[in-house]
Specification:
Layout (H helix, E strand, L loop, with lengths): L4 E6 L3 H12 L5 E7 L3 H11 L3 E3 L2 H5 L6 E4 L7 H9 L3 E5 L6 H14 L3 E4 L6 H11 L6 E9 L13 H4 L3 H16 L5 E9 L1 H4 L20 E8 L4 E7 L9 E7 L2 E6 L6 E7 L2 E5 L10 H15 L7 H20 L3 E2 L5
Parallel strand pairs: 1-2, 1-4, 2-3, 4-5, 5-6, 7-10
Antiparallel strand pairs: 7-11, 8-9, 8-15, 9-10, 11-12, 12-13, 13-14
Bound molecules: nicotinamide-adenine-dinucleotide (NAD).
Nicotinamide-adenine-dinucleotide (NAD) binds next to helix 1.
Length: 357
Protein backbone atom coordinates (compact mmCIF):
# COMPACT_ATOMS: atom_id res chain seq x y z
CA UNK A 1 0.00 0.00 0.00
CA UNK A 2 1.45 3.44 -0.91
CA UNK A 3 2.53 5.76 1.90
CA UNK A 4 -0.04 8.20 3.26
CA UNK A 5 1.26 11.78 3.19
CA UNK A 6 1.43 13.54 6.54
CA UNK A 7 0.29 17.16 6.37
CA UNK A 8 0.80 20.22 8.58
CA UNK A 9 -1.23 23.43 8.47
CA UNK A 10 0.48 26.75 9.27
CA UNK A 11 -2.10 29.47 9.90
CA UNK A 12 -5.54 28.12 10.75
CA UNK A 13 -7.82 31.04 9.88
CA UNK A 14 -10.49 31.44 7.20
CA UNK A 15 -8.85 29.96 4.13
CA UNK A 16 -7.29 27.04 6.01
CA UNK A 17 -10.52 25.93 7.65
CA UNK A 18 -12.82 26.58 4.68
CA UNK A 19 -10.59 25.40 1.82
CA UNK A 20 -7.26 23.69 2.56
CA UNK A 21 -8.35 21.43 5.40
CA UNK A 22 -11.52 20.25 3.59
CA UNK A 23 -9.24 19.55 0.61
CA UNK A 24 -6.95 17.25 2.58
CA UNK A 25 -9.92 15.73 4.41
CA UNK A 26 -11.41 14.75 1.02
CA UNK A 27 -8.56 12.23 0.44
CA UNK A 28 -8.23 10.12 3.62
CA UNK A 29 -6.66 7.27 1.65
CA UNK A 30 -3.84 9.53 0.39
CA UNK A 31 -3.10 11.99 3.19
CA UNK A 32 -3.64 12.75 6.83
CA UNK A 33 -3.44 16.08 8.64
CA UNK A 34 -1.28 15.52 11.72
CA UNK A 35 -0.54 19.03 13.07
CA UNK A 36 -2.06 22.51 13.08
CA UNK A 37 -0.26 25.72 13.95
CA UNK A 38 -1.53 29.22 14.62
CA UNK A 39 -0.09 32.03 16.73
CA UNK A 40 -3.63 32.28 18.11
CA UNK A 41 -3.90 29.08 20.14
CA UNK A 42 -7.68 29.07 20.15
CA UNK A 43 -7.76 29.24 16.33
CA UNK A 44 -5.38 26.27 16.07
CA UNK A 45 -7.37 24.30 18.64
CA UNK A 46 -10.69 25.00 16.93
CA UNK A 47 -9.34 23.93 13.51
CA UNK A 48 -7.73 20.81 14.96
CA UNK A 49 -10.96 19.85 16.71
CA UNK A 50 -13.06 20.38 13.60
CA UNK A 51 -10.83 18.12 11.47
CA UNK A 52 -9.74 15.72 14.20
CA UNK A 53 -6.04 16.62 14.07
CA UNK A 54 -3.94 15.39 16.99
CA UNK A 55 -1.16 18.00 17.39
CA UNK A 56 -1.56 21.73 18.02
CA UNK A 57 1.21 24.30 18.29
CA UNK A 58 1.64 28.08 18.28
CA UNK A 59 5.17 27.88 16.82
CA UNK A 60 5.47 26.80 13.20
CA UNK A 61 9.12 25.82 13.73
CA UNK A 62 7.97 23.13 16.14
CA UNK A 63 5.65 21.77 13.44
CA UNK A 64 8.45 21.81 10.87
CA UNK A 65 10.78 19.95 13.23
CA UNK A 66 8.47 16.92 13.03
CA UNK A 67 10.21 14.52 10.59
CA UNK A 68 6.93 12.68 10.02
CA UNK A 69 5.42 15.68 8.17
CA UNK A 70 5.84 15.55 4.36
CA UNK A 71 4.03 18.69 3.28
CA UNK A 72 2.48 21.88 4.64
CA UNK A 73 -0.08 24.48 3.71
CA UNK A 74 1.02 28.06 4.44
CA UNK A 75 -2.24 29.87 5.11
CA UNK A 76 -0.99 32.88 7.05
CA UNK A 77 -1.47 36.55 6.03
CA UNK A 78 0.74 37.68 3.11
CA UNK A 79 3.48 39.21 5.28
CA UNK A 80 3.99 35.78 6.87
CA UNK A 81 4.26 33.65 3.71
CA UNK A 82 7.98 34.00 3.01
CA UNK A 83 9.73 32.78 6.15
CA UNK A 84 7.55 29.76 6.97
CA UNK A 85 7.71 28.72 3.30
CA UNK A 86 11.50 28.92 3.14
CA UNK A 87 11.88 27.21 6.52
CA UNK A 88 9.48 24.45 5.44
CA UNK A 89 11.33 23.82 2.16
CA UNK A 90 14.66 23.71 4.01
CA UNK A 91 13.14 21.23 6.43
CA UNK A 92 12.37 19.01 3.43
CA UNK A 93 8.61 19.65 3.22
CA UNK A 94 6.58 20.34 0.08
CA UNK A 95 4.67 23.63 0.31
CA UNK A 96 1.25 24.81 -0.83
CA UNK A 97 1.41 28.57 -0.16
CA UNK A 98 -1.58 30.89 -0.32
CA UNK A 99 -1.73 33.67 -2.86
CA UNK A 100 -0.15 36.10 -3.48
CA UNK A 101 3.05 34.10 -3.18
CA UNK A 102 4.77 37.00 -1.42
CA UNK A 103 4.61 40.68 -0.54
CA UNK A 104 6.88 41.52 -3.48
CA UNK A 105 9.14 39.95 -6.12
CA UNK A 106 12.27 40.04 -3.94
CA UNK A 107 10.56 37.77 -1.41
CA UNK A 108 9.09 35.57 -4.15
CA UNK A 109 12.56 35.04 -5.64
CA UNK A 110 13.95 33.86 -2.30
CA UNK A 111 11.07 31.41 -2.02
CA UNK A 112 11.53 30.05 -5.55
CA UNK A 113 15.27 29.63 -4.97
CA UNK A 114 14.61 27.75 -1.72
CA UNK A 115 12.26 25.36 -3.56
CA UNK A 116 14.85 24.74 -6.26
CA UNK A 117 17.62 24.09 -3.73
CA UNK A 118 15.43 21.75 -1.71
CA UNK A 119 14.07 19.92 -4.77
CA UNK A 120 10.58 20.15 -3.25
CA UNK A 121 7.26 21.30 -4.69
CA UNK A 122 6.26 24.91 -4.14
CA UNK A 123 2.68 25.42 -5.30
CA UNK A 124 0.89 28.77 -5.21
CA UNK A 125 -2.75 28.55 -4.13
CA UNK A 126 -4.34 30.08 -7.24
CA UNK A 127 -7.46 27.97 -7.47
CA UNK A 128 -9.39 29.73 -10.25
CA UNK A 129 -7.55 27.75 -12.93
CA UNK A 130 -8.84 24.48 -11.39
CA UNK A 131 -12.50 25.42 -12.01
CA UNK A 132 -14.59 23.77 -14.75
CA UNK A 133 -14.78 26.80 -17.12
CA UNK A 134 -11.01 27.36 -16.84
CA UNK A 135 -10.27 23.71 -17.60
CA UNK A 136 -12.43 23.80 -20.72
CA UNK A 137 -11.02 27.10 -22.01
CA UNK A 138 -7.42 26.00 -21.42
CA UNK A 139 -7.98 22.82 -23.45
CA UNK A 140 -9.85 24.80 -26.14
CA UNK A 141 -6.85 27.13 -26.45
CA UNK A 142 -4.24 24.36 -26.29
CA UNK A 143 -6.07 22.51 -29.10
CA UNK A 144 -5.42 25.55 -31.31
CA UNK A 145 -9.03 26.79 -31.49
CA UNK A 146 -8.21 30.39 -30.63
CA UNK A 147 -4.81 30.86 -32.22
CA UNK A 148 -2.23 32.91 -30.33
CA UNK A 149 -3.76 35.33 -27.81
CA UNK A 150 -2.22 38.73 -28.45
CA UNK A 151 -4.34 40.82 -26.08
CA UNK A 152 -6.39 40.26 -22.94
CA UNK A 153 -8.48 42.44 -20.65
CA UNK A 154 -8.54 41.17 -17.06
CA UNK A 155 -10.98 42.61 -14.53
CA UNK A 156 -11.45 41.90 -10.82
CA UNK A 157 -13.72 44.75 -9.83
CA UNK A 158 -15.90 45.32 -6.80
CA UNK A 159 -18.24 48.27 -6.62
CA UNK A 160 -18.25 48.48 -2.83
CA UNK A 161 -16.37 45.46 -1.45
CA UNK A 162 -13.63 46.49 0.94
CA UNK A 163 -12.96 43.51 3.28
CA UNK A 164 -13.21 45.06 6.74
CA UNK A 165 -11.86 42.00 8.63
CA UNK A 166 -8.31 40.64 8.74
CA UNK A 167 -5.44 42.72 7.33
CA UNK A 168 -6.71 43.47 3.80
CA UNK A 169 -6.51 47.27 4.19
CA UNK A 170 -3.04 47.26 5.79
CA UNK A 171 -0.20 47.68 3.27
CA UNK A 172 2.43 46.56 5.81
CA UNK A 173 0.82 43.15 6.33
CA UNK A 174 -0.84 42.67 2.94
CA UNK A 175 1.58 44.21 0.42
CA UNK A 176 -1.17 46.04 -1.47
CA UNK A 177 -4.90 46.35 -2.05
CA UNK A 178 -7.26 44.80 -4.63
CA UNK A 179 -4.43 44.40 -7.13
CA UNK A 180 -2.54 41.94 -4.96
CA UNK A 181 -5.63 40.41 -3.31
CA UNK A 182 -8.12 39.75 -6.13
CA UNK A 183 -6.31 41.06 -9.23
CA UNK A 184 -3.87 38.21 -8.58
CA UNK A 185 -6.56 35.62 -9.38
CA UNK A 186 -7.76 37.12 -12.65
CA UNK A 187 -4.23 37.93 -13.84
CA UNK A 188 -3.12 34.38 -13.06
CA UNK A 189 -6.07 32.95 -14.98
CA UNK A 190 -5.33 35.20 -17.95
CA UNK A 191 -1.63 34.34 -18.05
CA UNK A 192 -2.44 30.64 -17.56
CA UNK A 193 -4.59 30.80 -20.72
CA UNK A 194 -1.80 32.65 -22.56
CA UNK A 195 0.87 30.12 -21.53
CA UNK A 196 2.52 32.45 -19.01
CA UNK A 197 4.50 34.67 -21.42
CA UNK A 198 7.47 36.51 -19.91
CA UNK A 199 6.53 40.05 -18.82
CA UNK A 200 8.97 42.84 -19.69
CA UNK A 201 7.40 46.13 -18.59
CA UNK A 202 4.27 47.63 -17.08
CA UNK A 203 2.63 50.98 -16.58
CA UNK A 204 -0.15 51.64 -14.11
CA UNK A 205 -1.94 53.89 -11.70
CA UNK A 206 -3.57 53.36 -8.33
CA UNK A 207 -6.03 55.49 -6.36
CA UNK A 208 -7.53 55.49 -2.85
CA UNK A 209 -10.07 58.29 -3.26
CA UNK A 210 -13.34 56.48 -2.50
CA UNK A 211 -12.00 54.42 0.41
CA UNK A 212 -10.60 57.52 2.08
CA UNK A 213 -13.91 59.38 1.74
CA UNK A 214 -15.91 58.63 4.91
CA UNK A 215 -19.18 59.57 3.16
CA UNK A 216 -18.78 56.68 0.66
CA UNK A 217 -20.57 53.58 1.99
CA UNK A 218 -19.03 50.11 1.86
CA UNK A 219 -21.72 47.42 1.24
CA UNK A 220 -19.59 44.85 3.10
CA UNK A 221 -19.60 46.87 6.33
CA UNK A 222 -17.65 49.88 7.49
CA UNK A 223 -13.91 49.94 8.05
CA UNK A 224 -11.41 52.32 9.65
CA UNK A 225 -10.66 54.85 6.90
CA UNK A 226 -7.61 56.15 8.77
CA UNK A 227 -6.07 52.66 8.78
CA UNK A 228 -6.68 52.19 5.03
CA UNK A 229 -3.16 52.23 3.54
CA UNK A 230 -3.70 50.28 0.30
CA UNK A 231 -5.25 51.33 -3.05
CA UNK A 232 -9.00 51.04 -3.68
CA UNK A 233 -8.58 50.94 -7.49
CA UNK A 234 -5.72 49.96 -9.77
CA UNK A 235 -5.27 49.88 -13.50
CA UNK A 236 -2.30 48.54 -15.44
CA UNK A 237 -1.01 47.71 -18.89
CA UNK A 238 1.56 44.91 -19.07
CA UNK A 239 3.80 44.14 -22.06
CA UNK A 240 5.21 40.66 -22.69
CA UNK A 241 8.32 39.46 -24.51
CA UNK A 242 6.22 37.73 -27.23
CA UNK A 243 4.52 41.04 -28.12
CA UNK A 244 1.27 40.33 -26.29
CA UNK A 245 -0.34 42.86 -23.95
CA UNK A 246 -2.68 42.50 -20.97
CA UNK A 247 -4.68 45.25 -19.31
CA UNK A 248 -5.75 44.71 -15.72
CA UNK A 249 -8.32 46.55 -13.60
CA UNK A 250 -8.94 45.76 -9.98
CA UNK A 251 -10.94 47.51 -7.28
CA UNK A 252 -12.41 47.26 -3.82
CA UNK A 253 -14.53 50.36 -4.57
CA UNK A 254 -15.52 51.94 -7.90
CA UNK A 255 -18.55 53.78 -9.27
CA UNK A 256 -19.68 51.27 -11.86
CA UNK A 257 -22.20 48.56 -12.75
CA UNK A 258 -21.89 45.21 -10.98
CA UNK A 259 -18.78 43.38 -9.77
CA UNK A 260 -17.18 41.93 -12.93
CA UNK A 261 -14.60 39.22 -12.30
CA UNK A 262 -13.66 38.09 -15.78
CA UNK A 263 -11.05 37.95 -18.48
CA UNK A 264 -11.56 38.68 -22.14
CA UNK A 265 -9.16 36.97 -24.53
CA UNK A 266 -8.41 38.15 -28.06
CA UNK A 267 -6.98 35.34 -30.20
CA UNK A 268 -6.24 35.34 -33.93
CA UNK A 269 -8.85 32.62 -34.61
CA UNK A 270 -11.42 33.41 -31.88
CA UNK A 271 -12.11 35.50 -28.83
CA UNK A 272 -13.56 34.49 -25.45
CA UNK A 273 -14.85 35.86 -22.19
CA UNK A 274 -14.42 33.74 -19.07
CA UNK A 275 -16.52 34.90 -16.10
CA UNK A 276 -16.19 33.81 -12.49
CA UNK A 277 -19.91 34.19 -11.73
CA UNK A 278 -23.29 33.86 -13.40
CA UNK A 279 -25.09 31.31 -15.54
CA UNK A 280 -22.94 31.88 -18.59
CA UNK A 281 -19.32 31.49 -17.54
CA UNK A 282 -17.82 31.14 -21.03
CA UNK A 283 -18.67 32.98 -24.27
CA UNK A 284 -16.73 32.35 -27.47
CA UNK A 285 -16.67 34.70 -30.45
CA UNK A 286 -15.73 33.05 -33.72
CA UNK A 287 -16.06 33.61 -37.47
CA UNK A 288 -17.16 30.53 -39.42
CA UNK A 289 -17.83 30.67 -43.18
CA UNK A 290 -18.17 34.43 -43.14
CA UNK A 291 -20.63 34.47 -40.23
CA UNK A 292 -19.92 35.76 -36.73
CA UNK A 293 -20.91 33.24 -34.07
CA UNK A 294 -21.41 33.91 -30.34
CA UNK A 295 -21.04 30.45 -28.77
CA UNK A 296 -21.93 29.30 -25.25
CA UNK A 297 -20.53 25.89 -24.30
CA UNK A 298 -23.27 23.86 -22.61
CA UNK A 299 -21.62 20.99 -20.73
CA UNK A 300 -18.58 22.50 -19.03
CA UNK A 301 -16.64 20.19 -16.70
CA UNK A 302 -18.15 20.17 -13.22
CA UNK A 303 -15.78 20.90 -10.35
CA UNK A 304 -17.49 21.09 -6.99
CA UNK A 305 -14.76 23.18 -5.33
CA UNK A 306 -11.75 24.62 -7.15
CA UNK A 307 -10.06 25.00 -3.73
CA UNK A 308 -10.43 21.29 -3.01
CA UNK A 309 -9.26 20.52 -6.56
CA UNK A 310 -6.10 22.59 -6.04
CA UNK A 311 -5.27 20.71 -2.83
CA UNK A 312 -5.90 17.42 -4.62
CA UNK A 313 -3.53 18.51 -7.41
CA UNK A 314 -0.86 19.29 -4.78
CA UNK A 315 -1.15 15.84 -3.19
CA UNK A 316 -1.24 14.15 -6.60
CA UNK A 317 1.94 15.98 -7.70
CA UNK A 318 3.80 14.94 -4.53
CA UNK A 319 2.73 11.30 -4.72
CA UNK A 320 3.26 11.10 -8.47
CA UNK A 321 6.63 12.88 -8.48
CA UNK A 322 5.14 15.48 -10.85
CA UNK A 323 6.08 19.17 -11.22
CA UNK A 324 4.24 21.80 -9.20
CA UNK A 325 0.71 22.29 -10.60
CA UNK A 326 1.11 26.07 -10.01
CA UNK A 327 4.85 26.72 -9.82
CA UNK A 328 6.37 29.34 -7.53
CA UNK A 329 7.75 31.01 -10.68
CA UNK A 330 4.17 31.88 -11.71
CA UNK A 331 3.72 33.56 -8.33
CA UNK A 332 6.97 35.45 -8.92
CA UNK A 333 5.73 36.75 -12.30
CA UNK A 334 2.57 38.07 -10.62
CA UNK A 335 4.48 39.72 -7.76
CA UNK A 336 6.98 41.27 -10.19
CA UNK A 337 4.13 42.73 -12.29
CA UNK A 338 2.47 44.19 -9.18
CA UNK A 339 5.79 45.71 -8.04
CA UNK A 340 6.20 47.38 -11.45
CA UNK A 341 2.61 48.68 -11.43
CA UNK A 342 2.96 50.16 -7.94
CA UNK A 343 6.30 51.74 -8.94
CA UNK A 344 4.80 53.08 -12.15
CA UNK A 345 1.96 54.69 -10.22
CA UNK A 346 4.59 56.61 -8.22
CA UNK A 347 6.91 57.54 -11.10
CA UNK A 348 4.30 58.06 -13.82
CA UNK A 349 6.53 56.01 -16.14
CA UNK A 350 6.63 52.54 -17.66
CA UNK A 351 8.66 50.27 -15.38
CA UNK A 352 10.72 47.14 -16.02
CA UNK A 353 9.27 43.83 -14.78
CA UNK A 354 12.15 41.77 -13.43
CA UNK A 355 11.45 38.05 -13.12
CA UNK A 356 15.07 36.87 -13.13
CA UNK A 357 15.80 34.39 -10.37
N1 LIG B 1 -7.20 31.67 -2.51
C1 LIG B 1 -8.17 32.48 -2.12
O1 LIG B 1 -9.18 32.69 -2.79
C2 LIG B 1 -8.01 33.15 -0.79
C3 LIG B 1 -9.14 33.62 -0.08
C4 LIG B 1 -8.93 34.22 1.16
C5 LIG B 1 -7.64 34.38 1.66
N2 LIG B 1 -6.57 33.91 0.93
C6 LIG B 1 -5.19 34.07 1.41
O2 LIG B 1 -5.01 33.26 2.56
C7 LIG B 1 -4.12 33.88 3.48
C8 LIG B 1 -4.77 33.96 4.85
O3 LIG B 1 -6.00 34.62 4.70
P1 LIG B 1 -7.24 34.31 5.68
O4 LIG B 1 -8.41 34.99 5.07
O5 LIG B 1 -7.33 32.87 6.00
O6 LIG B 1 -6.76 35.12 6.96
P2 LIG B 1 -7.15 34.87 8.49
O7 LIG B 1 -6.79 36.13 9.20
O8 LIG B 1 -8.56 34.36 8.59
O9 LIG B 1 -6.19 33.67 8.94
C9 LIG B 1 -4.80 33.79 9.04
C10 LIG B 1 -4.35 33.04 10.29
O10 LIG B 1 -2.93 33.02 10.32
C11 LIG B 1 -2.52 33.17 11.67
N3 LIG B 1 -1.13 33.60 11.69
C12 LIG B 1 -0.61 34.84 11.46
N4 LIG B 1 0.73 34.81 11.53
C13 LIG B 1 1.07 33.53 11.82
C14 LIG B 1 2.32 32.88 12.01
N5 LIG B 1 3.47 33.54 11.91
N6 LIG B 1 2.31 31.55 12.30
C15 LIG B 1 1.14 30.87 12.39
N7 LIG B 1 -0.06 31.44 12.23
C16 LIG B 1 -0.10 32.76 11.93
C17 LIG B 1 -3.52 34.16 12.25
O11 LIG B 1 -3.57 34.10 13.65
C18 LIG B 1 -4.81 33.70 11.58
O12 LIG B 1 -5.54 32.77 12.36
C19 LIG B 1 -3.76 35.24 2.85
O13 LIG B 1 -2.53 35.14 2.19
C20 LIG B 1 -4.87 35.50 1.84
O14 LIG B 1 -4.43 36.26 0.71
C21 LIG B 1 -6.76 33.31 -0.26
Amino acid sequence: MPKTLKIGIIGSGGIAVSCHMPGYASMPELCEMVAVCDIAKEAAEAAAKKFDVAKVTTDYRELLADPEIDAVSITTPNAFHKQPTIDALRAGKHVLCEKPLAMNAAEAKEMCRAAKEAGKILQVALQTRFGGPARFVKTFIDNGNMGPIYYARAKALRRRGVPHWGVFIDKEKQGGGPLIDIGVHILDLTLFFMGYPKPVSATGKTWDILAKDKTVKNFWGDFDRDRFTVEDFAVGLIRFEDGSVVTLESSFMANMEGDPFETQLFGTKAGAIVRAWGDNPVSIYKEIDGQYFDLSPQNLPRVESSHVAEVQAFVDAILGGKPSPVPGENGLVLNAIFDALYRSSETGKEEVVDVSL
